[in-house]
Each structure stands twice: as structure tokens, then as C-alpha cells.
């Protein structure tokens, strides 16, 4: 008699203890009555290759990948989606029955679904988007915004060449602005996005956004991919100005949807109860 294998998934990072993904997936597994497990795994860079080789044999159907392994896993995957290749990083791996590792990036999907759910009045074609930062999070957001049809994407990064590299990769709808005068690119923007770590609790940059928000119009949608704290200094200042703010927790929840569906066979819904569950609210 062959036993049914209980599907296992998890998140690989270093460190990984802070990740909210295990609580999120545990909540969905319980909600949908699925027999499966989702485990945080702290894997050092030197062990990444061996870990990815062993996991499918241990019953894993896939994993999420987080800092610092998102770029490196591309070199260890057998198949890479176009969007993961364009972004240059993967956050979701599927271990296929034929032994091949399939790498995808769902961060951009999470980014736009969060906006779709929490700022339904905004559509990408509404007008220019202004993006602060040019790291991995930015690349995922920029890819999704351009794919969604944003007519113009203004980009500023402290280290200007990184922003120029994005322009080279993503094309002429991207315009590069100087970091010290990034406030100017907010004029007429329908969406403002922070992808820098400025405002993240526990970093040296906590609360240090020195960009003038004077040019932001009321009603502009302002979002932050940082979600610790939920209301970052940028979001607080934008709210004060009458902007529609969207915090970054929604992106985290939505980027997890495609992986959960592939691994466990059920498309989960992101709702208020999901949010409460990962915030540890009753
Ligand atoms: P991620 O992959 O999470 O986006 P990252 O690649 O390390 O992380 O990118 C972090 C982003 O925050 C970058 O845009 C970085 O700017 P630089 O490219 O100039 O390093 C930005 N950032 C971090 N600290 C900053 C600060 N104090 N002021 C301005 N930008 C900052």
C-alpha cells in the first residue's frame, strides 16, 4: 500500500526567523483544511546548492526564497520564467516531479495585486508612476508597473548608475531622476512607490527619508514595500497630505498566492482575516 505523501514547502533565507511567510502559509493550510507544512529554513550561502538538491527528496514540492539567496537561485534552477530573468531574482521555486527546479518571481504580481485590492481607483494607465530605489524590490515593481501599462516611470536612486541600469534593462518609459531632487519627480505622479529600505525598523536608515513631498497632490496613491513598521515615515507623511496610502503587507501576502496554489492545489484568498492572522491579531 502506498501512502499519500504530505506536501512540504517553506522559505529559505539567512536569517529567516523574522519571516512572516510561515504564519501566512500555516493560516491558509488550516483555513483550507490542507494536510501540508510550511517551514522556515535558515540556509547559509555555501549550503544553498546542497539544500536545493536534497529538499525534493525529502518531500518538498517547492520553496520561497528570500534575502540573500534570491539572485543566486537563478544559477541553480533548470527553468526560469521570463519575468524572473528580467528582474534578475526569484522568490518562488517549484520542484517538479521530473526533478527539475522551476524558478519564478511573484513579487511584481504581489505588488500590483496589493494596489488592485487596496487602491482600486488607481490603474496603471492613470499616469506617471514615481519609484524611489533601484534594488531587487524595485526591479520587481518596475517590471509589474510597465507590464501593467504605466505610461511613464520616473526612477530615482541614491546610487544613480543602478537606476540607469534599470532604464537600460526596462526601456525608454523609464526616466532617471537625481536623488537629491527626487521630490521634483513627484509632480503629477499618480502613484509613488518607496522600494528603498529607508523607514525600515531596525536599519540605520530608519526614518531618514529626506525627499520633499511638497509636489505630491492629494489623492495620489502612495505605497511602500517596507512593512515593518506598517506605517512607514513616508506613508505617515503622505497620509497627512491627503494621499491614499497602501502599506506593504499586502504585497507580502499576495506574492505568496501563486506558490501556495502550485504547491498545495488551492488558490488562497487574501482578506482581512489573513492579514489579522499574520499580524498575530485575535
Ligand atoms: P532590495 O533587493 O530589498 O530592494 P537592495 O538591493 O539592497 O534591496 O536595495 C536597497 C535599496 O534601498 C537601494 O535602492 C538602495 O540605494 P543604493 O542603490 O544607493 O544603495 C536604497 N537605500 C538603502 N539605504 C538608503 C539610504 N540611506 N538612502 C537612500 N537610499 C537607500
In short:
The chain is built from ten helices and twelve strands.
Measured by DSSP, the beta-strand proportion falls in 15-25%
Q: Radius of gyration over alpha carbons?
A: 19 Å
User: What is the overall pLDDT average?
Assistant: 94
CATH architecture of the largest domain: 3-Layer(aba) Sandwich
* Poorly predicted residue ranges: none
The profile of the biggest β sheet is: 6 strands, mixed
The molecules bound to the chains, other than polymers, are:
2'-monophosphoadenosine-5'-diphosphate
Task: Characterize the structure shown.
With 282 residues, the chain is of the alpha/beta class. It has 2 domains: 8-105 and 253-279, Leucine Dehydrogenase, chain A, domain 1 (Rossmann fold), CATH 3.40.50; 108-247, 3-Layer(aba) Sandwich (Rossmann fold). The chain contains 10 helices and 12 strands. The strands form 2 sheets. A 6-stranded mixed beta sheet has the order 2-1-3-5-6-4. Strands 9-8-7-10-11-12 form a 6-stranded parallel beta sheet, sandwiched between helices. β7, α5 (136-148) and β8 (153-156) form a beta-alpha-beta unit. α1 (21-31) crosses α10 and α4 packs across α8 (249-255). The radius of gyration is 19 Å and the shape is globular. The termini are far apart. The mean pLDDT is 94. The protein binds 2'-monophosphoadenosine-5'-diphosphate. 2'-monophosphoadenosine-5'-diphosphate (ATR) is lined by residues 133-138, 157-159, 162, 195-198, 205, 208.
